[in-house]
Every structure is written in structure tokens, then in C-alpha cells.
């Protein structure tokens, strides 16, 4: 009975935590992680300030929980479907890039890519929050690089000599499209990025049929 | 005599304004434009809050003055030297790109490129401040596009068909290098961006001798 009561409390706590985090990741994508305060989140969620503080602890612990929640959403939206739907190699690279563009264009986070926003917010602010943002961003870039290396090993990118360099170029296009589409309230930058991605892959000798769908709206 | 006294006051006002703005652009490049307050700037400059308010007016007027000051620094550092030193065409394009990389690497603003930082901060916040950031960024991109078009018209980029597309790709590389160099406290991203810029221009048929110096430290 005592155990059931504790489990019930924990469950309600988990639900509250999830609800508050969902609101917090969205808010942080617009106003930044530094603008998150326990007080403001409590107001928005209709909880007491002390209740939210009990769930998350310090402001830094809250920010770290928000980065972790954003990382999971990113993986579920961009990486996991590509892993489920495609074989390793160039097809997976193309789906990863398309999923990223969709993730930004669909405003999975209200302020566009959470990591594009918070990377710039924290690029000059060393500390645990920046380390968590770096870890999540590196994980994505490492996964994209590994996928490119599979395509390279399979002979699908004959003119490529440096997968890491190509990852730098790809994420440059993706993040620029994200920022510009928000700044100009326009979908045109996604077209620019798609053109850049396709022409870069074409120059590396990729099969045209495989790369044609990059950045195209996907059939559901 | 009255006139001299007014002129003297105006002169001291101009000096105070310049000093406060120099501090404010630097601070905003790290903490964002939204973090600027009349009170904090007054503390940092050793002025009274009402004195700073008299010089700048509202917080939004202060933010707009900061964007205008950052625009002037950007033009003086990146654009004006390229105009003075080179002829129109591919040489000028190469010097513009190199100057931009130097401007970011030299931390002309403590938090790296002022416009890369504030574009992302304001991309989801419509209003006069965002409009001013958009105007300054567009001015730079238009100038780069016009410079590319001169190179195109002069036959220096035989395989290019869309100067605006190339500008998108170039600024993608520049801004990604800026953010990553800050985030990872590393100069490597400038090498990545330089490689990307040169290989893109090479693929468009640019004379190798003209593009070799992109991103190289410049002789003083």
C-alpha cells in the first residue's frame, strides 16, 4: 500500500515532468535555454514553483533535462525512421538529410532546430549545458559521418576522399536553411539547401536516381 | 558661448555613446541583444541609468543602435578593405570570403560574428530589431552576390548558373565555421570552410591561382 502510493506519486511526477519538458523544449527553441526559469515554467504549467523545483532541481539541471528531451525528439524524428526504413549507405544518407529538412520545416520545435538555436546561444558560454549541447550535436554529426563512410565503402561516392569534410558541408547547408527560413519566414532556403546537397553529391559521383528525392516532401 | 557649450555637451554625449555602444556590441555577441539592458550598460560604463537612457531612449532604440554599430564594424572589417584592395570579380570574391573568416577568427566581436549570433537569436522574433538584422544581413549577401555576378560576367566562373545559390552555399560555410569554432574552441572549422569554399569554386571552373589564398592568414 505504501509502495503503491509511492509508485502513484512517481507516476504523477513523471507525467508532470514530461508535460513541463515538452513546453520547455519548445520555449527554449524560441527564447533560448537561458530564458528558462523554474518560475516561468511553473506559471505556464499551472504548478507551484516549489513543485517544479522538486521535479527538476536547479536551473542548470532543468536546462540539462531539456537538452536530453530535445535529443530524444531529434533522434525519434530524424535518425530512427532513417534507420528503420533504409539500408546503410547512400540511401540512408539521403533519408537522413531529407528527414532533417522536414524536421526543421515542420517546426517540430516552434523555433526550428533546437540544437541550431542553442548551439549559437551557448557557443561562447563554457559549462555543463554547453557540453551537453556539444555531445548531442557531435552524436548526430558522427552518425551522419559513419553513414557517409558506409556509402563510400560501398563505392557509392567514388570521388569522395573525406567523409568528415562532407559532413561539415552538409550540416552547414541544413543549419543555414533552418535559420534563413525562420528569419525570412520563407520555405525558399530549404530549396537552396536541397539543391546544394544534391549538387554536392552529384559532383562526388552519386547515382542520380538515389539523390533525386533529397529535400522533396515525403509520401506519408 | 551658448553654442560652444551645447557643442561641448553633444561631443561628450557622442563619446559616451560610442564607448557604451562598443561595449554593447561585444556583450550582445555573447549574451544576445535581448540581454542588453540600460541598467546593465550603465553599470558597465560607470554612467547613471538615466544618463544612458537619455543617450539611447528605449531598450529597442538601444538594440537598433547596437545593430547599426555592428553593421559599421562589419563593413569596415570585411567589405571596405576588399573594395579598396581588389578589382571587381573573382579576386574580390576571394578577399571578401577570406576577410569574413578573419573577422570571425580574430573575434572582432568577442562572441564571433555579431550577425550570426543575433540572426539565430531573433529568427523567431518578428519586429523592428529583426528587421534591422535582416537588412544588414541582406546587404552583405546582396553585395557578395553582386561580386559573384561580376566574376560570372567576366567569364571567371564558367560552370556557374545561379549566383544567389552560390551565395547561400558560401554563407552556410562561413557561419558554420563561426559557430563550430566557438562551440569547440577550435580553429579547425575555418580549415573546413576554406576547403569547402575552394573546392566549390574549383568545381565552377575558377582559376586555381586566384582561389588558392582563400582562408589563408593574410600578410599584413
Structure description:
2 copies of one chain form a homodimer. The first copy, chain A, contains 10 helices and no strands. The first copy, chain A, has a domain of 149 residues: Tetracycline Repressor, domain 2 (Orthogonal Bundle), CATH 1.10.357.10. In chain A, helix 2 packs across helix 3, helix 4 crosses helix 5 and helix 5 packs parallel to helix 8. Chain A is elongated. Chain A is mostly helical and 220 residues long. The model of chain A has no long low-confidence stretch (mean pLDDT 92). At the A-B interface, helix 6, helix 7, helix 8 and helix 9 of A face helix 6, helix 7, helix 8 and helix 9 of B.
Topology:
The structure is a homodimer of 220-residue chains.
Chain A lengths: L1 H30 L6 H8 L3 H8 L2 H27 L4 H16 L8 H9 L5 H26 L9 H21 L4 H16 L4 H4 L9
Helix pairs in contact in A: 1-2, 1-4, 1-6, 2-3, 4-5, 4-7, 5-7, 5-8, 6-7, 7-8, 8-9
Q: What is the architecture of the domain at 63-211 in chain A at the second tier of CATH?
A: Orthogonal Bundle
Quick check: average pLDDT of chain A?
Answer: 92
Amino-to-carboxy terminus distance of chain A:
47 Å
Q: Can you identify the CATH superfamily of the domain at 63-211 in chain A? A: Tetracycline Repressor, domain 2
Helix percentage of chain A: over 70%
Strand content of chain A: under 5%
Structural class of chain A: mainly alpha
- Give me the count of strands of chain A: 0
Q: Sheet bearing the most strands of chain A, described?
A: none
What is the overall number of helices of chain A? 10
CATH level 1 class label of the domain at 63-211 in chain A: Mainly Alpha
Largest interface: A-B, 40 and 40 residues
Amino acid at each position: 500500500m505504501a509502495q503503491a502510493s509511492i509508485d502513484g506519486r512517481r507516476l504523477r511526477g513523471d507525467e508532470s515532468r514530461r508535460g513541463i519538458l515538452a513546453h520547455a523544449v519548445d520555449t527554449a527553441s524560441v527564447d533560448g535555454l537561458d530564458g528558462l526559469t523554474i518560475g516561468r515554467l511553473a506559471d505556464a504549467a499551472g504548478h507551484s514553483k516549489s513543485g517544479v523545483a522538486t521535479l527538476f532541481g536547479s536551473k542548470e539541471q532543468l536546462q540539462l533535462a531539456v537538452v536530453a528531451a530535445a535529443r530524444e525528439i531529434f533522434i525519434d524524428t530524424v535518425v530512427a525512421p532513417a534507420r528503420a526504413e533504409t539500408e546503410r549507405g547512400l540511401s540512408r544518407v539521403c533519408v537522413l538529410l531529407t528527414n532533417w529538412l522536414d524536421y526543421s520545416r515542420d517546426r517540430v520545435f516552434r523555433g526550428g532546430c533546437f540544437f541550431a538555436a542553442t548551439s549559437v546561444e551557448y557557443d561562447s558560454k563554457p559549462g555543463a549545458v554547453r557540453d551537453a549541447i556539444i555531445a548531442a550535436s557531435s552524436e548526430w554529426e558522427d552518425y551522419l559521418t559513419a553513414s557517409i563512410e558506409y556509402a563510400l565503402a560501398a563505392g557509392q561516392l567514388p570521388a569522395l576522399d573525406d567523409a568528415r569534410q562532407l559532413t561539415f558541408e552538409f550540416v552547414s547547408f541544413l543549419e543555414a536553411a533552418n535559420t534563413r527560413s525562420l528569419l525570412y519566414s520563407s520555405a525558399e532556403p530549404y530549396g537552396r539547401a536541397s539543391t546544394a546537397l544534391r549538387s554536392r553529391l552529384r559532383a562526388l559521383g552519386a547515382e542520380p536516381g538515389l539523390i533525386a528525392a533529397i529535400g522533396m516532401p515525403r509520401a506519408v
